[in-house]
Amino acid sequence: MASYPCARLIAIITLIVILISCGKPDPLPQHAAPQQPGWPALKPVIGPNAAIEQRIKALLENMPLEQKIGQMMQPSIAHVSPEEVKRYYIGSVLNGGGMFPNGNRYATPQEWQALADAYYQASMAVPDGVPAIPVIWATDAVHGHNNVVGATLFPHNSALGAANNPELVRLIGAATAQQMVATGLDWNFAPTVAVAKNARWGRTYESFSENPGIVAALSAAYVAGLQGYPNDKSFLNTDKVIATAKHFIGDGATTRGDDQGDADLNEQQLIAEHALGYFSTLSMAVQTVMISYSSVQGLPMHGNKHLITDILKNQLHFDGIVVSDWNALGHVPGCTRDNCAAAINAGIDVLMVPYKPDWPNMIANTIAQVKSGEISMQRIDDAVSRILRVKLRSGVFNKPKPSQRSEFTYDTYLSTPEHKALARRAVRESLVLLKNNDGVLPIAPNKNILIAGDAANNVSRQTGGWTISWQGDDTTPKDFPVATTVFQGFESAVQAAGGTVHYSATGEYEVIPDVAVVVFGERPAAEMSGDIENLNTLEFNHEDPEPLKVLQKLKAAGIPTVAVFIAGRPRLINKELNQSSAFVMAWFLGSEGGGIADLLLANQNSGKSFDFQGKLPFVWPATPCHVLGSQPQFNLGYGLSYAQPVNLSTVPEDYPPRTYGCDLPEKFVPSSAKPIDLSGSDFQLHLELKSLESKIISDSETWHGLRGAVQRKPAGAISQIDLEWQDAPRNNAVLQDGKVRSLLANLAAGHALQFEIKVNQKPSAKVWAKMECGHLCAADTLEITQKISTLPISHWQQVYMPLACIAKNRSDLFKINSGLRIDSSGYFSMSLRHLKVAALNDDDAINLCE
Ligand code: BGC
Ligand code: BGC
Fold first, then answer.
1. Boundaries of CATH 3.40.50.1700 in the chain?
2. Nearest-angstrom CA–CA distance, 499 and 491
3. Taking 70 as the threshold, does the pLDDT of residue 1 lie above it?
4. What confidence category does residue 4 fall into, taking pLDDT thresholds of 50, 70 and 90?
5. Which of these is catalytic: 239, 267, 325, 338?
6. Cα–Cα–Cα angle for 12, 13, 17, nearest 5°?
7. Which regions of the chain carry the CATH code 2.60.120.430?
8. How far is the CA of 139 from the centre of ligand 1 (A)?
9. Across residues 203-213, what is the average pLDDT?
């Protein structure tokens, strides 16, 4: 039985890959929509089902407009109650990264289920005459059910790309679906089918490969695992969930690898390099596609009717749901995040509007736009038909409440022995051996082994972003009750074999070890904060110089060293490579750290170990600012094995320096950086109440909980701003002129953001400050409460924030779009003047960053 679907999977993928890589025109039958140049006319893999289409028609006839629009909304669980699901006929909910039932990170599977049941029951309790439509719950289970404490976590996609084994990926998808079903969830925002072309992109680890063929094959396998096979009885069966191919399209191709940036590619380039994962997952009947935050040639994807409707829906015959990304609608010209007819008209069916009151506003605005004719009823019916089609196919109409949907409803299902074994196998298959001089690996387990490095005994460091929280950077051992660290894996194997093993992060030892394993790498990060920007480069040593020191120290003591690099993507590591006898790329490997010892230790009895199978799915940089087409250190597909030992000679360390990061010329002269006056006449004060409503005020005005007054000089420039916060949950004031500036040169020149502040009344609660670089940057701000509270009352004081400090918090200084933003959640009154970015020249100025 098992071999049949697998053979079919391979056949489908092979067909797609051959089809696409040949670039031949579509051999499949033509459809009504006009053929778009270069795009294949994919045949719908699930043919029309008359019973389902009939049911959709009947439902649509009985649905009031409010219910149709409600079905299109997707609020987050922190911002919608079961009662509201009922009242607004909400179609789906999501938990973003770091959102849990009752806000409790340690919510049990039963608590997840209980909330799923509550939403479901609310959605079924409709007034007479209105059809009951079950609500569905979406999550980002992108490496296992990673938002739930206790789930087995699999390696991230870049690791799976190294393993490049579709069947392994299918099994991981299937295990993830079981984990989700065990908590009552229906819809997974995975797989990411991005083809990451620039390792500076912080989401590179969510991409299987920069090779579109690998992405196509593994994405299809992932979808088969999550959803089952189309036209097979496994399809959306009780232990399956709805999958999503994301982020359509070009997310991995942005300039500089900017998250949410612009892909400057024409359609032929998109087809050749970035569409294959869509072709392959559509052929596996992926039921939903998420639109990308990014733009294509300057046009935000969320408003791109041509690519969404003409191509994805009409040309590629996608008949499922197109969902928008988190809060992304504000990216569309003319839209705000609670009002966006343009996105619906472009073809988006489900609007991920996570916050309140954005989503109730969106409902009201959309209803008004349908009534005014700005959005046609036909478009709404198309969107709702798609939502109903996916729900009908998923069987949710016939299923009992979520907690009773399958046999997988007990705690242990999050982490069965099978799941753990699968995750550990995935680690073994994904490790890539970059160097193994003089056969230092495999290590005989009966030796005296030192395990060093700050990532060796730390689950958080091995699991990466999208782990319990969104960024995955705030986890503690309590978050990982079932995980094994790399050190623990060595400990049990070595002890069983009669060897000795010690752990010291800094590489200290009492008895000289026979060999040392040094485990280090990137910190966990997710969207945006993982981007390599500003003064940073791909050179790992620049970011963290400590591991090299540990390696040098051990080498100097004559101890053979094995470097294990835990990171989401290739980094320039030539210095570390030269100091190690062996070097293993381990990716973000998930909860099963034991997989490392499995491969690095020789089997006690046979003397043989598992062998390395992983091959690089991304080229490995030889320079700090590697770009597409540069000479790599290691090519795509590189990876040594025990079977084929090769000694690697010393690699160059004399690559050209990049003192100012990758975006300023190396010959840049810091003194030439120009100061910027940010009090100019174009600035407006923009007030945002509870981060939910916003308003631009041009003059003295009182507004809800936040009062602002702007005084202008006769010439028009702002001379002073008076602001008063009135006990509100986080109100903010932003000084903006609608321009986006790069402050990179100012950063390199050591400039600071400076202003004079007069505290009129001390803050009663926290105060934050930042410069903004897009709506999502508001997540990271610098807390200045302490500093502000010590300033004398009613006295002008010069203060500053070095750009380097701002960049540390939000490293997007090349796209700053505000002068200053101040948030407060309590009572606070202050005045502000003379805002500028310049070199410091006032010794008495106070640093708000310290
Ligand atoms: C959410 C994530 C989301 C992110 C984007 C976070 O607060 O939890 O799911 O992707 O915000 O801003
Ligand atoms: C991410 C998506 C994710 C969504 C929901 C967004 O910020 O870009 O990949 O599915 O949040 O958490």
1. 420-600
2. 9
3. no
4. very low
5. 325
6. 120
7. 670-847
8. 11
9. 98
398, 371 Cβ separation under 8 angstroms: no
DSSP 303: G
Q: Establish whether residue 97 lines the binding site of ligand 1, counting it when its CB lies within 6 angstroms of any ligand atom.
A: yes
**Phi then psi dihedrals of residue 819, to 5 deg:** -75, -55
Amino acid at 293: Y
Backbone angles phi, psi at 359, to 5 degrees: -70, -40
The segment(s) of the chain belonging to CATH 3.20.20.300 are: 4-404
Q: Above 60 in pLDDT, residue 7? A: no
Per-residue pLDDT at 220 exceeds 80? yes
Query: What superfamily in CATH does domain 420-600 come from?
Result: Glycoside hydrolase family 3 C-terminal domain (3.40.50.1700)
**CATH architecture entry for 4-404:** Alpha-Beta Barrel (3.20)
374 tagged catalytic: no
Is position 527 annotated as part of the catalytic site? yes
Q: Using a 6 Å cutoff on CB, does residue 774 contact ligand 1?
A: no
State the ligand closest to the CA atom of 190: 2
pLDDT band at 806 (very low <50, low <70, confident <90, very high): confident
- Ligand 1 mutation pick, 244, 293, 326, max ligand atoms within 8 A of CB: 326
Q: Are strands 828-838 and 676-677 parallel, antiparallel or unpaired?
A: antiparallel
Mean pLDDT, residues 541-564: 97
**Distance from Cα 37 to the centre of ligand 2, integer Å:** 31
Check pocket membership of 466 for ligand 1, CB cut-off 6 A: no
Fold of 670-847: Jelly Rolls (2.60.120)
Shortest-distance atom of ligand 1 to CA 325: 10
Give 843 or 210, the one with higher predicted confidence: 210
Residue 650 to residue 633: CA distance in whole angstroms: 12
Chain mean pLDDT for the chain: 91
